[in-house]
Specification:
The protein has 192 residues and is α/β, with parallel strands linked by helices. It is built from 5 helices and 10 strands; from the N terminus they run H-E-E-H-E-H-E-E-E-E-H-E-H-E-E. InterPro entries: PRTase-like (IPR029057), PRTase_dom (IPR000836), Pur/Pyrimidine_PRTase (IPR050118), Xanthine_PRibTrfase (IPR010079).
């Protein structure tokens, strides 16, 4: 998606450790025009799969998921990283390790919002090592919901996440695929 790639090139910053900082339009401040385009792109790609719900993890996956949900006309469920007074029981849960934050979070989704009848699209902001998506897949499995697709805003193709998910047989669509962040230069996968 050229618009997203332009935002990454012009507004993204490469930090040590192959970290891409995109907080000016995705992870802290949100560019609603860009997110609307992202949502439309995901909706167009996954339109004919009978999706009943979109599932993501708080917080950076919420904006692209909501815009895709708006386009597809389906609810968006986000896995919570912190327990609250209103979310304490009757939960699907999984543990997710974040390499960027160097911490493990238990994610939770209420059993009231996912079930056997659901065909779900998973959406996340980044795919690197695949841990967040694997956690969401575990939640979907517990719910006995069918995952019909995985949408990623930015993929670090030089890391193992895509290979893990493809090996498991899931259809993945990434809007921007990064081949390398070496020497603080953002290189996209050719032909994407």
């Amino acid at each position: 998606m050229k618009l997203l790639e332009e935002h990454i090139k012009n507004r993204g910053t490469v930090l040590p450790g192959n970290v891409l900082k995109v907080d000016s339009f995705l992870n802290h401040q949100i560019d609603p025009v860009l997110m609307q385009a992202v949502g439309k792109e995901f909706a167009n790609r996954f339109a004919n799969l009978g999706i009943t719900k979109i599932v993501t993890i708080e917080s950076s996956g919420i904006a692209p998921a909501v815009f895709a949900g708006l386009e597809l006309g389906v609810p968006v469920v986000f896995a919570r990283k912190k327990k609250s007074l209103t979310l304490t029981e009757n939960l699907f849960t999984s543990s997710v390790y974040s390499f960027t934050k160097q911490e493990t979070n238990d994610i939770s989704v209420s059993k009231n919002f996912l079930g056997k009848a659901d065909k779900i699209l998973l959406i996340d902001d980044f795919l690197a090592n695949g841990q967040a998506v694997l956690g969401l897949l575990e939640v979907a499995e517990q719910a006995e919901a069918e995952v019909v697709g995985i949408g990623i805003v930015i993929e670090k193709s030089f890391q193992q996440g895509r290979a893990l998910l493809e090996k498991a047989g899931y259809p993945i669509y990434s809007l921007a695929r990064i081949a390398s962040l070496e020497n603080e230069q953002i290189r996209f996968v050719e032909g994407e």
